[in-house]
Design a protein that fits this description.
- The protein is α+β, with helices and mostly antiparallel strands and 202 residues long.
- Helices cover 56% and strands 13% of the residues.
- The chain is built from 10 helices and 6 strands; from the N terminus they run H-E-H-H-E-E-H-H-E-H-H-E-E-H-H-H.
- The strands form 2 sheets. Strands 1-3-2 form a 3-stranded antiparallel sheet. Strands 4-6-5 form a 3-stranded antiparallel sheet.
- Strand 2 and strand 3 form a beta hairpin.
């Protein structure tokens, strides 16, 4: 039983971290369990949320599972997201934004591979601010979402198109520019000016 609780906790952690619907077969593969066992554990997890009257619920959509907030708390969640929407961008968010802009269309895993850390929060923040958006899904296992910049991004950066983005400096040039300006990141110069544009456009 303790082992089952541990596996259910692992499933919960994976669903929470994903932020997107996950196929039961994918969970079974990662946990090295049969699909029937995983499906039963998912049903048990859903029951636990119901029994505790939790603010979360586990929903099933076409063989995929996702953690969602309950409808009765929608106003509270919406209020929180509105507050978050109006907060200035962090350095991490600016770096994610640059990766999306210079690569035109990327997946979450691609961004995280470049930055070396989880970027779920930064991506969600940029989507809420209308600077990036979902552009579709790749025809690959798991059907990962593809993100790209929006027209609002172009307005904030005074660009006609992504082709107008400045050329990226070499690694050596980047490091020298950051040192000369006493910065830890080249994105810091952009931060102050774009924050004003983003907040003015709210």
């Amino acid at each position: 039983m303790n082992n089952d609780k541990n596996i259910i906790a692992r499933i919960e952690a994976m669903l929470f971290a994903s932020g997107e619907p996950v196929e039961a077969v994918k969970l079974a593969e990662l946990l090295e369990l049969d699909i029937e066992s995983v499906t039963k554990m998912l049903a048990h997890l859903a029951d636990l949320y119901e029994e505790k009257n939790s603010g979360l619920r586990l929903v099933r959509m076409d063989g995929k599972y996702q953690l969602c907030t309950r409808e009765e708390y929608a106003d509270d969640v919406r209020a929180l997201l509105e507050v978050r929407k109006n907060t200035p961008l962090s350095q991490a968010a600016f770096e994610v934004l640059a990766i999306v802009a210079y690569n035109k269309s990327v997946t979450k895993s691609f961004i995280e591979q470049i930055r070396g850390v989880d970027c779920s929060g930064s991506i969600a923040n940029l989507v809420q601010k209308g600077l990036i958006e979902e552009k579709g899904r790749l025809d690959l296992p798991g059907r990962p979402l593809v993100y790209g910049t929006t027209d609002r991004f172009l307005r904030c950066f005074s660009l006609n198109s992504l082709d107008d983005l400045p050329d990226l400096p070499s690694v050596e040039e980047s490091e020298k520019m950051a040192r000369d300006n006493g910065q830890t990141s080249l994105f810091e110069d952009e931060k102050s000016s774009v924050e004003e544009d983003v907040n003015d456009d709210e």
